[in-house]
Design brief:
The chain has helices at 3-15, 18-39, 44-74, 77-83, 88-100, 104-118, 123-147, 151-168, 180-186, 190-199, 206-226. With 232 residues, it is mainly alpha-helical.
Length: 232
């Protein structure tokens, strides 16, 4: 089974239901609305950037590991995929891409809104953030999905991680609201760096954010190509 067949399978499985497509948007759009109302529109760019981050992290660190663990429990499909020739990370990458497709229309709309507000030249920051964040969250999601065997465990862990990384940290709201000394530590977290880069025309901590995202991107690419994800 090629990576394209895996992508097609999961795309069809998710996009045949309108409710599953709508479910991708509920939480991020709700947070945009809440932040917009509370800030009286001042933090709209941060809220939109946060929603982009949430869509990506939600697929990589929640949907992907839950799907992988669920496949092991409810069917032999996981075993069939993993016994086929080819790199196991490539196969799970195909699953992640297929599961990302329902969120793609929302991502495109949000990115276009950001570019309309900040200028098309801002696309360099947006693309770096989106690509780095997707690879980082997918790598972690692959690891969780392979190493964890219980669906309830992976669901709880995914909820805790996605909430911590996208809600409590300055992702939907500006980094400048955090204490100044803490900002440098927070920028080591990819979700914070990505949101900060995307939310401003001239990000205050652009250099550190780019360095942080670049580090995680290179590290995750090395792990994906060097390690076979196998169960213990």
């Amino acid at each position: 089974m090629s990576i394209w067949a895996i992508i097609e399978y999961h795309k069809n499985a998710l996009m045949k239901s309108k409710s599953s497509i709508l479910s991708f948007a509920i939480q991020p759009i709700s947070f945009i609305f809440i932040v917009y109302v509370i800030s009286e529109g001042r933090f709209l760019s941060s809220a939109i950037a946060g929603a982009v981050v949430s869509f990506i992290v939600g697929v990589g660190m929640a949907d992907l590991p839950i799907e992988l663990v669920g496949m092991k429990v409810r069917s032999k499909f996981y075993d069939i995929i993993m016994t086929l020739p080819g790199n196991s990370a490539e196969k799970m990458l195909g699953i992640s891409i297929g599961m990302s497709l329902p969120a793609l229309p929302y991502l495109i709309i949000l990115i276009l809104i950001l570019l309309a507000k900040l200028g098309f030249s801002h696309i360099k920051y947006v693309m770096l953030s989106v690509i780095s964040l997707w690879i980082w969250s997918t790598t972690l999601g692959m690891y969780m999905g392979v190493k964890i065997r219980e669906p309830l465990t992976v669901m709880r862990l995914s909820t805790v991680l996605t909430t911590l990384l996208t809600v409590f940290l300055p992702v939907y709201y500006p980094l400048t609201l955090a204490p100044e000394k803490l900002r440098y530590v927070l920028l080591l977290v990819p979700t914070v760096s990505a949101s900060h880069l995307m939310a401003y025309r001239h990000p205050q901590y652009a250099g550190l954010s780019i360095t942080s995202l670049g580090f995680w991107l290179i590290l995750c690419l090395m792990l994906i190509f060097a390690i076979e994800f196998r169960e213990d």
